[in-house]
Amino acid sequence: MNKQFIWHVAATVLLTTATQFFEQAHAEVLDISDTSSHAEVLDISDTSSQEAIEVSTNNQSLEPSLTDTSQALLRSTATVRVNAHQHENRQAATVYIKNIPVLTYIDSGESTDVVSGWLQTTDAKADDGVLADAATLSAQLEQLYGQNITFTAHWQEGNYVVMAGDSPLVTLGDTVQLPDATDNEAEDVLQVTNRLRRLLGNEAEPVSEVIGRPAPPPPAQQIAAVRSSYNGMASWYGPGFHGRTSASGESFNQHAMTAAHRTLPFGTQVRVTNLNNGQQVVVRINDRGPYSHGRIIDLSAGAARAIGLQSAGVGPVQVEVLQ
Question: 251: which strand partners?
Fold first, then answer.
């Protein structure tokens, strides 16, 4: 009896002690009344922590850490490249901007050792000829990238030149060409210029004029050589004769580039220059005249208008008979 009582008392004491211990332990684990501990665990007010989170989740946040110069170099390196290749058994190198060919350098002589492939600016040495020239231009274009430079086409001392601002950038010729060159050098230099304007000049408007280029000769100058030349006074006719049969048998058209002459065979091409203003026109002889004293040729109304003679009625001219 006493033994059972003793075991009962002992069991009660042990149970009470265990209960108190677990309650205290549970309270320590769950108690969040200590605000300082809670803040240490969950506080994200630390700006350095925010930056770390932002960098890890958004790569764009790294960009501001680069200097402006570094960013420009990264863009430039990926923008301007040089491709070495062969062109009609000659070494050539084409400069690309944003994967668009802009200019090709071509060696003046044949080469048995042609380099091919993409080049870095530092790959070409000073004695590498066109490779060095292309690499030099590439480096210049990288420096110009993002500077809002205006590119223009010029005619200087008989050469077509692309200008970057006020400085010559490149001179076109037999060994420096538009990659898809044509037979029209003026058109080619405009193409090079406009590609540079578009690719490096923030979508600049294209140009259509070669600055300083002399006016192309009129078609008359390209027809034939001069057989004979003489000066005198010219007149014109038209309204009263329009539609009538000319001396050659064809119907006279006052708007066509024709003229009357006393002796030249019908169909002869004649270049007439107004000596007062230098304007020229080529006419075809299809009629006889003029019959007024002191005049050597009678132009149609259209031909007279072309050289600024219509309002004057009569004026001094040079007549060149073409072969």
Answer: 245
* Strand 295-300 with 226-237, pairing: parallel
Comparing CA positions, the residue from 144, 240, 275, 233 lying closest to residue 197 is 144
Query: Cα 20–26–30 angle (5° rounding)?
Result: 150
Please state, in angstroms and rounded to a whole number, the distance separating the CA atoms of residues 215 and 63.
52
pLDDT single digits (tens) 226-262: 778 999 999 999 888 888 999 999 999 998 999 999 9
| 205 within 8 A of 194, measured Cβ to Cβ | no
Q: If you ran DSSP here, which 8-state letter would residue 290 be given?
A: -
3-state secondary structure of 25: helix
The span from the CA of 283 to the CA of 256, in Å, is 9
Question: Torsions phi, psi of 14, nearest 5?
Answer: -60, -40
- Determine phi and psi for 225, rounding to 5 degrees: -75, 160
Which residues, including other chains, have CB under 8 Å from residue 10's CB and lie 6 or more apart?
A: none
Question: Which domains are present in the chain?
Answer: 76-200 (no CATH), 219-322 (2.40.40.10)
Q: What is the pLDDT of residues 93-118, one digit of tens each?
A: 999 998 999 999 999 887 778 888 88
Mean pLDDT of 13-33: 48
Asked which of 187-196, 225-234, 265-274 is least confident by mean pLDDT, the reply is 225-234
231/221 Cα distance (integer angstroms): 18
- Find, among 120, 113, 116, the residue nearest to 82 by Cα: 120
CA 263 – CA 288 distance, rounded (Å): 8
- Do 151 and 192 meet the contact criterion of CB atoms below 8 Å apart? no
C-alpha 224, offset from chain centre: 37
For residues 130 and 253, what is the distance between their CA atoms, to the nearest angstrom? 58
pLDDT digits (tens, 9 = 90+) for 74-89: 344 458 899 999 988 8
pTM of full prediction above 0.70: no
